[in-house]
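From the shared-data thread, chain only:
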Amino acid sequence: MTAMPRYRTDPSPQALATRLRALRKAGVPVACGVYAGLSTPVASSALHARITHAAAQAFVTSRAAEVPRFEAPPSAQLRLLTAASWGRLDAVGPDTTTFPVDLASELWWRVHARIQGTLRPHDQRVACDLLLRLGYPHSAAAVIGLTVIDPRKQVLSPDFALEQLAVLRCHLPSSAVEAMALRGARSGLPAETRRDLALFVVFRNAARGADSTSLQAAAALATKASSELPHHGFAAALHRARLHRALAAVPFVRRDIAETHRLLGRALESLTAIKPAADQTGLDRLAWADEAYALHSFLARTHLTVGLSQRALGHTDELIALSPGDDRTWASRGDALAACGQFEAALDAYGRGIALGGWGAARAAYLRGFVLERLGRVAEAAEDYVLSQRIDPTSSVVAGPIAPEGVGRGLVSARRP
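Structure, as tokens:
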């Protein structure tokens, strides 16, 4: 089976407007309403949506100090894309005050009211994260007092450095934001802040597959800052897992798979040692699941890279247990099944991604069509390609790194803009 193609989309504002218009007519509504009204999560809600809802509840009940730093959600445009999938472009406005009353939950308005009041630093941090998750970057900037959007003049705050970077990423080139983070990691900021800034640089470089001097410097700085922090307790073990996951990115981009797996194994050991009980709930449980999801995603990807498809499939079992409502879960699952030669099961996995609706269904439909075409089921494949294009006409698809010549290559190249 050929390697699965990489599905990409145009990040420009013009392309976003095109996607919103297409989603409004595509007939693939998102079942989860967390990102468009802060409705209670449902069975099909992704882990990151459940985290967003739990953080909002903690914020309005004065428990913001208990909210840990989570992974960023997969898109800053989730509110816009969700609302568009419902045919509600009136919910994509730039301010919470203009949000449609019939879509907003009580929690939405409680968050809105609380943001207008006096906030302590913990409240400001969580409020900023919530506003970014809900797609309000200008409000997020205001809540932490960020008035200057200029990397030459911006001074990172010990209290809000990560929040400042998250906001600036919405306005500035990645290179400028990463350079600012690296300077902060080398500064006299507190060790915890320096560690998080360095990890930010590592993960951003790793996402691009860049073996750069910035990646290497940031990994070293993250290790040094971590050595200055406590080594015992739940939070310390969780951060140790995150550190080793970050460090594994360095050999991974160099294709040193043995060292990558050694470091990821250490990350898994740290997580396993603090795994919450099955009946445990709350923010710590969500924080553990958040890190576990990122780690098993990385493990699945590294095993697929070196052809260990059965091991990759095992890690997608973990992704399903952690977040069955995430379209990324089913994309990883489908890729692993296809690599194992289990094509019918792969089709079912991609179908589960389509059933979740929204913009993510475009990628799932394309991948299912790709497998169908490879199986010679051309008419069914064409239906899925049409569905994918109907949901997201801005996409482009690049053939996998080891894809052979043959069936499917023509469609892959024809879809590039």
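The first strand starts at residue 6 and ends at 9.
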